[in-house]
Amino acid sequence: LFSFGQQNEDNASGSVFSLTTRWTGLPVYRKEGRHLLHFGASFSTRNPFGNETRYRSRPEARSADFLTDTGEMQASGIKLFGLEFAMVQGPMWAQAEYIRSNVDAQLLGDPTFMGSYGQVGFFLTGESRPYRRNSGVFGRVQPERNWHKGNPFKKQNGGVWEVVGRISRVDLEDELIDGGILTDVSAALNWYPNSATRVQVNYIYASPKNEGAANIIVLRVGYSPW
Q1: Are 32 and 129 in contact (CB under 8 A)?
Q2: What is d(CA 185, CA 168) in angstroms, rounded to the nearest whole number?
Q3: Is 81 helix (H, G, I), strand (E, B) or coil?
Q4: Average pLDDT for consecutive 10-residue bins of the chain (226 residues)?
Q5: Which one, 37, 114, 135, 218, has least CB within 10 Å?
Q6: Strand pairing of 160-174 and 177-194?
Q7: Cα–Cα distance, 179 to 66 (Å, whole number)
Q8: Which residues, in sequence order, are bridge partners of residue 19?
């Protein structure tokens, strides 16, 4: 994939030119995806617009402030390396990703930044997380029966209930850059009344290095008919 442009509302990377590629493998795929094992790797090279770039991260809640921030950096290029893993075992699923970013910034010591996460989910109503084999990604949850009315906690009324746990970490400290380190631990209860709607109650414990901690509770409602 080749991309040309500069930073705007549709392209937040600020990259004039980028080359990105991703490989995935599916060594196990049984029972129409209710049992599967996925591996992947990716690589991307970027040339920042104006030779400037910046890394920063919120604690996985858009309403919160940035808790890690490198500030603007002079950089001639960026190389990204990624690894990914996913599995599905009936109603249980797990996935993890790791990404390493090598920044070509000689005056700053050519710093390297890293980010990773791991998460595990379980469908209390017995569904399985769908997988799209043509693109190597998970698809949207499909209830066996859409919720129509009545108590949503009763399985016979339809809908899907899911619990998820997650831990993530971003490290923006290397060489002459002290952008901070942030670790997030979160848990979520998700309700899918149908394939287009998700209601999520999410608790996040955000722990930036040497800066205390934040406890965040978020209610998210998403609707996507396509």
Answers
A1: no
A2: 7
A3: strand
A4: 56 66 96 96 86 90 92 92 98 98 95 98 96 94 91 91 98 96 98 96 95 93 89
A5: 135
A6: antiparallel
A7: 11
A8: 2, 45
Residues 6+ apart with CB under 8 A from 110: 102, 103, 104, 175
Q: What is the pTM of this model?
A: 0.87
Label each residue of 22-52 as H, E or C: EEEEEEEEEHHHCEEEEEEEEEEEEEEHHHE
The first and second tokens of residue 56, run together, are: 């920063």
pLDDT for 184:
97
3-state per-residue secondary structure call for 2-15: EEECCCCCCCCCCE
3 in Cβ contact with 11 (< 8 Å): yes
Backbone angles phi, psi at 118, to 5 degrees: -140, 140
Residue type, 26: L
Question: What's the rounded Cα separation, in Å, for the pair 88 and 212?
Answer: 36
Phi then psi dihedrals of residue 70, to 5 deg: -80, -15
- Return the HEC string of 152-207: CCCHHHCCEEEEEEEEEEEEEEECCEEEEEEEEEEEEEEEEEECCEEEEEEEEEEE
Dihedral Cα 116, 122, 123, 129, nearest 10 deg: 40
